[in-house]
Design a protein that fits this description.
Keywords (chains A, B): Hydrolase, Magnesium, Metal-binding, Quinate metabolism
Family (chains A, B): Belongs to the inositol monophosphatase superfamily.
Distance between the termini of chain A: 28 Å
Organism (chains A, B): Lepidopterella palustris CBS 459.81
GO molecular function (chains A, B): inositol monophosphate 1-phosphatase activity; metal ion binding
Protein name (chains A, B): Inositol-1-monophosphatase
Largest interface: A-B, 61 and 61 residues
Oligomer: homodimer
Shape of chain A: globular
Number of strands of chain A: 12
CATH topology of the largest domain in chain A: Fructose-1,6-Bisphosphatase, Chain A, domain 1
Chain lengths: 338, 338
């Protein structure tokens, strides 16, 4: 398939934004069925022992809706959604053990990101819709309906909050990364689901990395990063959205799948952010800093940054990447079978 | 002063809600001055090197506004606001080294909670207005304007989101705490500002506690709590609000001052939550579980919980408190001079 024109892309973008709005409404409406709201008779049956079944049903309903809309409008496009790849076991039974994305125009969708938050009705959940062409995330739509926040971007059209506010929020000029980053930075990270308490497990490697980022400068044998704040939201997608917004300076995480990050990466890159690998290379001070491969499962994102008197924005981002790499451990998240 | 009637309290509540709405609007309007919004000429001067001065100015403006409104309407009431006690140094110079709250009707206000979030324009910031009588938090108003969320409660009038939705959200019936809590729970915690990397410092004690709560069941010498999710928002006030909502099951933190927690405790208690001390007593399995003293600086909050076939809601909350105490370390936050 040949390149898409900007006009074709714009049409797909408008479709994706409407899809995200409607899917987010579905998520919020389903959540509201669980609200008590003093209507005892209507809701008494709903919560019972376990909200998880309800949430699974909603997830599947929203996924079916999105998939049917895409198939109807763009029958030639490929779709990648988590239900087809639930868990590593199912995944490894599939034909492909490699990245899920190839050169075809591909929709990469998570109908519900932040599932734990959704189960507990913490507002940090969203639908995430990415559109990928030739391995590049071209369009991203993230709708967090309980927060009234819609993030969207299309290559060449900028990145937006609620379709009216350019991202990053602070611009004209966009501030450079702090001179002593990670000091002065808000660092976003996730504890994730892998909680094995084995020597040198991902949990231990993560916590050691968190400690290095948090501790006072001079602490931790010189690795102390004294970040301005440590944040954990429980949604990789919203971590990326808030990094695009400039609210988070750094996001570092391992274990995400394509659908967790495709839309967020599209939005962050269009806003001017950088996404590379979470795992420090052998020579963190000098290794080239490459854009992340979408299916790598290892992500380090830096917010959009402007130039200072002495550095370009990209230079200040790369300086920050190297300072993070100096403080974090390698995480062990390979592709199943890879 | 004698007890306030419900009618007097209702009037004060209406005043507090309006105060919270207006103060939140002031916070959001000041934040929006920092948005670029493509109006280059208007905003170019604003960000410069440092957003902190701007934020300090906003904090002071909102504080002055709130204080003037309270003085005008209720000249006999006492007010406790952070500016008068900034930092421990200033605090310890004051006459009182004891709790800031006595039996007088007292407004306990944080014009801007989540300062780091506000500086970075992460939406988790709010104004927090508590009204205390005889050491009990009677009224709480928390307004997070960038989230469009207003939490409010008055003793005897229930707890509310945006004045229309009863808290906790899931009710009729309110679910009990999970049978194997902290497993199944969302655990909210904060890294805070004390990042000293000394042996057994608060930072190390906190992280050891976080690890115990996060690790798989059976891990950490039997302390592994395998919580459903770990969350860090950077706002003690909103941690309490989301615990009242039922989104967070457990919040554990040390170091907060009265103004960080007064409104949140009022809302959480009115919603049916429990707040006791963060530090485990000598006999965590059997020690009595007392409501926290407002100025204790050590807080463990449990969401509202309903009865199950075998336990009252309070019993399931107390069971959860003991399970948390078994996994966390004592934190060292005393009153200055105490």
């Amino acid at each position: 398939m040949s390149e898409l024109s900007q006009e074709e892309l714009d049409e797909i973008y408008a479709f994706a934004v409407n899809l995200g709005k409607e899917a987010g409404r579905m998520l919020l409406n389903a959540a509201k069925l669980r609200f008590g709201n003093n209507k005892r008779e209507e809701n008494a049956h709903v919560e019972k022992d376990n909200a998880v079944d309800l949430v699974t049903q909603t997830d599947e309903d929203v996924e079916a809706y999105i998939k049917s809309q895409i198939t109807l409008k763009y029958p030639s496009h490929k779709s990648v959604l988590p239900v087809e790849f639930i868990g590593e076991e199912t995944y490894s039974k599939g034909a492909s053990r490699d990245y899920l994305i190839n050169d075809d125009p591909t929709w990469c969708v998570d109908p519900l990101d932040g599932t734990v938050n959704y189960i507990h009705l913490f507002p940090m959940f969203c639908v995430s819709i990415g559109f990928i062409v030739k391995n590049k995330a071209m369009i991203g739509v993230i709708h967090a309906p309980f927060l009234n926040q819609l993030f969207s971007a299309c290559s060449g059209r900028g990145a937006w909050l609620n379709e009216t506010q350019s991202l990053p929020l602070v611009r004209n000029p966009i501030p450079p990364m702090p001179a002593k980053a990670p000091s002065g930075c808000v660092f976003s990270c996730e504890w994730g689901k892998d909680r094995r308490d084995l020597p040198d497990s991902n949990l231990h490697r993560k916590v050691e990395s968190f400690m290095n980022m948090a501790a006072e400068v001079g602490g931790r044998d010189g690795r102390g990063g004294m970040v301005h704040g440590m944040r954990c939201l429980g949604s990789a997608t919203l971590d990326l959205a808030y990094t695009a917004m400039g609210s988070f300076d750094i996001w570092w995480e391992g274990g995400c799948w394509e659908w967790d990050v495709a839309a967020g990466i599209a939005i962050l890159q269009e806003a001017g952010g950088l996404v590379t690998t979470a795992n420090p290379p052998d020579d963190p001070a000098n290794a080239p800093i490459e854009n992340v491969r979408l299916g790598s499962r290892l992500y380090l994102a830096i917010r959009p940054a402007g130039a200072s008197a002495t550095e370009s924005g990209r230079q200040s981002q790369e300086r920050t990447v190297r300072e993070v790499w100096r403080r974090v451990r390698n995480l062990d998240y390979s592709r199943p079978g890879a």
